[in-house]
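Quick log. Single chain, no ligands specified.
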Amino acid sequence: MIPVSVLDLVPVRQGETPVQALPRALDLCQHVERWGYQRYWVAEHHNMVGIASSATSVVIGYLAGGTQSIRIGSGGIMLPNHAPLVIAEQFGTLASLYPGRIDLGLGRAPGTDQLTMRALRVHPGAAEHFTDDIQTLQYLFDEPQPDQAIRAVPGASTHVPIWILGSSTYGAQVAAHFGLPYGFASHFAPAELDAALRIYRARFKPSEQLERSWAMPCVSVLVADTDREARHLFTSHQQRVTDMVRNRRGLLAPPIDDIEQYWTPAEKAAASRMLECAFVGSPDTVRGLLQDFLQRTGADELMVSCTVFEHAARLRSYELLAGIAQELESARSPALAMA
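-> predicted structure:
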């Protein structure tokens, strides 16, 4: 079985608040743990009323406390928003509470707009120190030196595994240089996926954390009993992506009967480009689409995002996908997977 993991933005639905969204995330996490998923990550976004995972490390603790074995992590922490020492302490604490279960995925983007960046007191040039901040985190998670003046407590000696996340070839170069696993955001920015994977594998340098490259693209997947039902449910996500094109932020909307009435031709074209790696349909349909994707990319692991309005339908999608995943291992190209 190819490892399959979950990326959850903890969506807030119309008519609700985060009070309902957060317990729903825990329920999903508990279900996918039973269905054999590898990890469950939440992402840092700010000033977005439809996303309830802004205090990412707090949400990770909540999810880890309600589960037993699944790895819980960040997809990701936007490192320029934070001092590395603070992140080392937060994730060192999580690793101390839930040993062997915490992942730290790191992104370079702010996860918000310029106005909110100012509210976060983030310096505009903070992203320029991304690689230095990664090295600092590795140092703080490592065994402390006798003369080490600054220590993360908790954090030192926890060796929290770091992942590099990105949507361009820059992240691929960083992950390869540090010898770290790499997650690509093809669920919303697929354009440079193939180039990024080639660069990552070609330039990868083995490290203490990782002996060989490990690539985990994130894709959108929605599985339902029929193609028609899946396409209908998917209109909630299509509305959300269209709103992103319109530079609007809102709560997750219920599905609609005719998405063509929601977007203009230009908006449809822009949203469709962002959703190029969205695989929607019945189990047979999605199985074929994912087989083609694995053959193309040689992915070592898949991370899946599923944005559905009805919680029961979202659970059903992940349940059906768990069955599909058992059949996907043979679809990977050995030459690509070991490159």
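The first strand starts at residue 4 and ends at 8.
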